[in-house]
Amino acid sequence: MTSRLFAICFHASRPSRLAMFWSGLLGWEVADGPDDDVALLHPDPAGFRIRFLPGRDTKTGQNRAHFDLTSASPEDQRQTVARALELGGRHIDVGQLPEEGHVVLADPDGNEFCVIEAGNKFLAGTGFIGALACDGTQEVGYFWSKALRWPLVWDQDQETAIQSPNGGTKITWGGPPVAPKTGTNRICFELALPADADWNAEVERLISLGARCTDIGEGDSGRVLMLDPDGNEFFVRKTR
Questions:
Q1: How far apart are alpha carbons 219 and 153 in whole angstroms?
Q2: Domain assignments of the chain as residue spans, ordered by start
Q3: For residue 159, what are the β-bridge partners?
Q4: Options 3.10.580.10, 3.10.150.10, 1.10.260.40, 3.10.180.10; which CATH number does 4-173 get?
Q5: Which of 84, 131, 144, 215: disulfide with 89, CB 3.0–4.6 Å?
């Protein structure tokens, strides 16, 4: 049985505070996570949750992944930006051009995200979180398509994107050049299997697709830390 995308995890200096920011911005319910962390529950029970885990690493550069939030109209975009600023977000400059229609912001922990202008055809119909936009190779896009069994919805000029067969948020990779990885990613995936599934077989399947196991993990407790082909950390766990 294939594991599913259980959560997108943020390593945060103050998980509760960051959870409150994103809950206020997205309108998602706050709940206790599986390891005494804080989580936001997707309005659709089949969707991924967002987890906020304690993390002490100092942010030294741009994250390898960020959310792209969609807008229904110019006024809707302005309202989203205003709400983010009221909740503790701030404007940042990552080299965007004045003529570009999206607005680049950072949450209270410095994690970048974009509020995309209305009329973006690529994100049409995806929902408020239109995409998790990642810095990564074509190879890693192919890996995640096979790992999650999500079809490729974009594969051009080494840029890739996948989306659940049920629709919703897309995950995209921008292709080269890919900035060198420094330290542990602040944002990572967590995959989950039902408790009665063959967990070891799933780990082996992911390895056969190009993932690697690390020496860090909790295999005896049904949780292991792995690396995808670009060296990005992700967890595989059994659900309880």
A1: 33
A2: 4-173
A3: 156
A4: 3.10.180.10
A5: 84
Instruction: Give the pair of three-digit tokens for residue 44.
Output: 């659709």
